Amino acid sequence: MTSLVKGNMKLGFGLMRLPRLEDSTIDIEQTKKMVDLFREAGGTYFDTAFAYPGSEEAIRQALVERYPRDSYTLATKLIVQADAHDEEAAKQEFYTSLERTGAGYFDFYLLHALQRTNYSKYDELHLWDYVKELKEKGLIKHYGFSFHANPDLLEELLEKHPDVEFVQLQINYADWENPGVNSKRNLEICKAHGKPVVVMEPVKGGILADPIDTVKEILDAENNGSYASWALRFVASQENIMMVLSGMSNIAQMEDNLSFMKEFKPLDEHENEVIRKAQKALNEDQSIPCTGCRYCTKGCPMNIPIPDIFTVENRKKGSPEFRTKREYTIVTVGKGKASDCVQCGQCESACPQHLPIIKLLEQCRALEG
């Protein structure tokens, strides 16, 4: 596979979960230090999006204004959302991203988060033709799409748009054969179509960096690296992987990831067997597999902090009841509770994991006492 990316390291710096200060703004100084560590180790690929609050402006300050433009690779994305309700508004996202980053051009540009509920909108707004026009103008070098749906739709999109140069997929060992995500099958389809893959959610929104106890016991017995290292090495060991994104939130996470990705070694057969044991343990667990992307919260009419409520629900196992109640109160103060759900369904249509959120919120009502 011919790489489209500068450099040899497979680790990409995902900018969705940058460190934040107490006032919730991005910690630019810590982000600069993380960028410097990443660049010193040979990392070149940075992934942001129009929809990641503050991320594009942050990478302008931490990277674009501090490093030569030809020394790194920058990716961002166009998403059809509430404020991109017409063609003009959707296309304007590109120029807004260009202004926010100050990058001059983007090495990789993606149509963002395609799934069953929205993919036709990208056709209606002529956005596939638009990215081709941007490439012809030299404003982007490569275009592709990020994807959250079943294999049938992926096949359909790749057959309809054979000129796509790469695809971004959610791949991790927890979702390898999860029928709601289809990591393995979607990767196989991209390989069959000759499309290199950029991996998102390799640690499933942090779930695999701090996995359930049964998985920890399996990995601890090996005494071989952090929990996150197992997750990232698993996906980086697969065929047809161009880049593995990690949404790092602090310097410690950056240092840990670089410790095993700078001189990457694929998993051996024994390590793959360890992963299979971890997968079995995960399949037996009943936790809510929410990644915390928060796409579900943006249009919630009741302002329910859905991912935070799911986190409390998952953590209640083995926790004293008073602690669970306290955590639930903290995450819902000034916001909606699980019982406030009006079952409008917008959250389920936005969820990349295709979770039955309405049903799960009903389950979480027990947290209210």
List the helices and strands and how they pair.
Blueprint lengths: L10 E4 L13 H13 L4 E3 L7 H10 L8 E6 L8 H15 L4 E9 L4 H6 L2 H10 L3 E8 L3 H10 L5 E5 L12 H10 L4 E4 L12 H8 L6 H10 L4 E6 L4 H11 L7 H15 L22 H10 L5 H12 L13 H5 L6 H8 L5
Parallel strand pairs: 1-2, 1-8, 2-3, 3-4, 4-5, 5-6, 6-7, 7-8
Structure commentary:
Helix content is 41%, strand content 12%. The protein is of the alpha/beta class and 369 residues long. The chain folds into 2 domains: 11-283, NADP-dependent oxidoreductase domain (TIM Barrel, Alpha-Beta Barrel); 295-368, no CATH class. An 8-stranded parallel barrel has the order 1-2-3-4-5-6-7-8, surrounded by 5 helices. Helix 1 (28-40) packs across helix 2 and helix 1 (28-40) runs parallel beside helix 10 (251-261). The protein is globular and about 60 Å long. It starts with 10 loop residues before the first strand and ends in a 5-residue tail after the last helix. The relative contact order is 0.10. The mean pLDDT is 93.
Give a short synopsis of this structure:
This protein has 369 residues and is of the alpha/beta class. The chain contains 15 helices and 8 strands.
